[in-house]
Amino acid sequence: MKNRILIVGHGLSGALLAQAFLNKNQIVDVCEANLPYHASKVAAGLVNPLIGPKLNPPTDLHACLTAINHLTDYFQKKCGVKFYQSIPLLRVFKNHEQAGLWNKRSITHPDLCITKEILSQKEATHHGVEAPHGLGVTNCMRLHIAAFLQYSKHQLKETDHWISGLDMYETKDYDKIIFCEGFRVMHNPWFSHIPIAPVRGEILGIDSSLNTSVSNGTWAIPITENHFIAGSTWDHKIIETGPSPEGKEQILKSLHFIKIDTRKISKHLSGVRTGTIDRNPTLGCHHKNKKLFLFNGFGSRGSTTIPLHAKQMVEYVLGRAPLPAKIDITRFNKLNHLTK
What pLDDT is stored for residue 315 in this prediction? Predict the structure, then answer.
């Protein structure tokens, strides 16, 4: 069979990439070793259109949202499930400067803002939120990552394209092998030269009600009527370790604008995101071994950007289109005196 493709890793990137290939009627095998500290196991799946202290829309946001909508339609037709859910997000302003930025964004990006006017502290109180500088409401989405990964695994198993454990891919007769290993790419002998920036993040699960999703950079998202999750932290130094007391304290301190009963904290988890030094993902082919590919480096924006980049990767791997230069792995080819 032409184009026998193996995807190594079934986190969010590997699963979405596998579905993108299947959407093009290209069969793939997927192997998953189920190693600890996967970010996908704890990620919130938030697609936030206005990020950071300056409320900037992510690069290529509208192209990302278009890809997400196409993916949503694909799954709706295929299995009757929408894994992406539209949600309002209350953005609590930290100061008057952020409130002023909101006024500008509501003019330049009106489609991203549910409320054009800043809501007052009195209005914020109705949501159980302390917001002395006001808040705005953005159009967001949330990917139900656990449900999606379960669906993808079941589908691959049912069609006999799922491989559990570490596969000896070097000895298998695959035409192309795509590594979606997250931060463990640093240990991959073929791609360890790629300068990644792994970050450990922690989240809390609280057995209490929350009216709506809310964020001031640190977020809280209702999961059920009586449970919500909150996070996340950023630690570049200590990577492969579990959750920490310091991380818990940081989340609770950052979420001072909502009431949290610490006695109802039922979960404390951590995972490792994989970013890059230039904050763009890394896609492409090994500079010498043309059967090996990398699909990596999505950081905290994976739920937003992976559907778009998965489509681009499929076209590239199947020889139909080049990759955009800013995400192509060749941008790192001059680093570290490549010898592999």
Answer: 98
**Tell me, what's the pLDDT at 335?**
60
Beta partners for 179?
Answer: 8, 294
Determine the pLDDT at residue 173: 84
Question: Is the pLDDT higher at 333 or at 14?
Answer: 14
How do residues 213-261 score in pLDDT, each as one tens digit? 999 999 999 999 999 999 999 998 888 888 999 999 999 999 999 999 9
Fold of 5-43+146-195+278-332: FAD/NAD(P)-binding domain (3.50.50)
The per-type count for the chain, helices as H runs and strands as E runs, is: 7, 14
Per-residue confidence (pLDDT) for residue 266, from 0 to 100: 97
CATH 3.30.9.10 fits 198-276, yes or no: yes
At residue 37, the 3 state secondary structure works out as coil
Cβ(74)–Cβ(16) below 8 Å: no
Say if residue 338's pLDDT is above 70.
no
User: What pTM does this model have?
Assistant: 0.93
Residue with the two structure tokens 């695959």:
174
Domain boundaries, the chain: 5-43+146-195+278-332, 46-143, 198-276
SS3 of the chain: helix, strand, coil, percent, to 5: 35, 25, 40
CA dist 5 to 208, 270, 288, Å? 45, 31, 18
Peptide linkage before 270 cis (omega within 30 of 0): no
Q: Does residue 334 have a pLDDT over 80?
A: no
Looking at beta carbons, which pairs linking 284-291 to residues 24 or more positions away fall under 8 Å?
284/316, 284/323, 284/327, 284/328, 284/329, 284/330, 285/329, 286/190, 286/191, 286/329, 286/340, 287/329, 287/330, 287/333, 287/338, 288/340, 289/190, 291/174, 291/175, 291/176, 291/177
Whether the Cβ atoms of residue 148 and residue 83 lie closer than 8 Å to each other: yes
How many Cβ atoms from other residues are within 10 Å of residue 240's Cβ?
13
What residues pair up with 284 in beta bridges, in sequence order? 294
pLDDT of residue 115: 86
- Residue 122, number of CB atoms within 10 A of its CB: 8
For 100, residues 6+ apart whose C-beta sits below 8 A from its C-beta are none
